[in-house]
Write a structure and sequence with these properties.
Layout: E1 8-14, E2 17-25, H1 30-41, E3 46-52, E4 57-62, H2 68-77, E5 81-82
Antiparallel strand pairs: 1-2, 2-4, 2-5, 3-4
Length: about 80
């Protein structure tokens, strides 16, 4: 399955919504978290985003599997690096 998310699927939060965990490098503050959140929320199918700046962990609730490339694109546009 080429192109599918390299984020780790951690389960389902409600019917039709799965959670995926990613690691983002370069975030240092709440503004960073807001920029990543806004970018990821703009992806079709995303229902929720939770960011932990200290660990770089980003949890995404989505109605579909996201490709690594589409998540990486919005994270890069926000000024950060998606590493997994």
């Amino acid at each position: 399955m080429l192109g599918l998310s390299r984020g780790k699927r951690v389960g389902s939060t409600e019917v039709g919504v799965s959670e995926f965990v990613y690691t983002v490098r370069g975030m240092t503050c709440g503004h960073c978290a807001d920029a990543v959140t806004r970018g990821v929320r703009g992806i079709e199918g995303v229902h929720g985003v939770a960011v932990d700046v200290a660990s770089g962990r980003v949890v995404v609730g989505s109605a579909r599997v996201l490709t690594f490339e589409e998540v990486a694109t919005v994270v890069t546009e926000a000024g950060y690096e998606l590493v997994g």
